[in-house]
Amino acid sequence: MRGAFLAILILTSCGDLGRSGEAPPRVVLELDGEGDRPAVALIIGDERHEGVLGTHCWEFSGGGFCADGPLPMPSSFVDLQKGTVLSVEGDFDSVEATLGTPRRSSVATKGEWDFVELRDPVRLDLSDRREALTADPARYVMEVFATWPEGDGVFSLGITITEPKG
Q: Which residue from 33, 104, 138, 160 could staple onto 148, CB 3.0 to 4.6 Å apart?
């Protein structure tokens, strides 16, 4: 079966070094279309942060399925500096990403944040496979929609944009 793979590299500003004089760790948003469903992880250095799969349709050898629902709340939030550049790489048909502040979805269980809606969403322009995160420092949810020959998936990732160091 033909596998699919998408990586969005998240890099800090070119030439920017941390206070210790070392380059910050490489950050990769990795979407993997192999197997019986798509998956996403945000990798920062040697830390792996799993994204949450929401609505998706997927075909695989011997079958396929679809699941529909609201955008799930990310399981964790990671800090990225304002100005971080997202570079898109991988074997995919299309990709879209939206960044917005999370608010509890109208379908969420009372008192729980199972699902979110994006307030003041801003679509990231990935047409040239690069986009800087220029939003003001705050807590955001990134909604990523990607398609492959096997199907498509929506993912949520938690990102806290911080002021640049230095």
A: 33
- Give the C-alpha separation, 42 to 51, whole Å: 7
CA-CA distance, 74 to 83, in Å (whole number)? 22
The residue written with tokens 């269980």 in the block is 109
Return the closest-CA partner of residue 145 out of 34, 6, 3: 6
Asked if residue 117 lies in contact with residue 70, where contact means CB atoms within 8 angstroms, the answer is yes
Per-residue pLDDT reduced to its tens digit, 33-68: 877 888 877 877 788 888 899 999 999 888 899 999
Statement: the pTM of the whole predicted model exceeds 0.85: no
| Beta bridge partners of residue 50, listed in sequence order | 41
Beta-ladder partners of 59: 64
> What is d(CA 138, CA 161) in angstroms, rounded to the nearest whole number?
5
User: 52 φ, ψ to 5°?
Assistant: -110, 125
